[in-house]
Write a structure and sequence with these properties.
Blueprint: E1 4-8, H1 13-24, E2 31-34, H2 39-49, E3 56-59, E4 62-65, H3 67-75, H4 79-83
Parallel strand pairs: 1-2
Antiparallel strand pairs: 1-3, 3-4
Helix pairs in contact: 1-3
């Protein structure tokens, strides 16, 4: 399985939904980067992704985007291969 990194905050409902979707796919470990606790990481997220909202999700080295993007990948049948590193 690919490594999952997610920029998030403690109170973000979309972050929680993304985590639930990933866990339903068998992902046991998600590296959470809490931008609410470390403002420098927020700047890093914006620089890397060009986006200001959370979550921002990486599967391996692929920037997926936010929860809506993750859910769209799943609906299109493209999430499982990406999680297996077959992208």
């Amino acid at each position: 399985m690919s490594k999952i990194r997610m920029y998030s905050t403690a109170v973000c409902p979309f972050c929680q939904r993304a985590e639930m979707l990933l866990k339903s796919k068998g992902i046991a470990e998600i590296e959470k980067i809490r931008i609410d606790l470390d403002p420098a990481r927020r700047d890093e997220m914006i620089e890397k992704t060009g986006r200001r909202t959370v979550p921002q999700i990486y599967i391996g080295e692929v920037h997926v985007g936010g929860f809506d993007d993750l859910a769209a990948l799943d609906r299109a049948g493209k999430l499982d291969p990406l999680l297996r590193g077959q992208a």
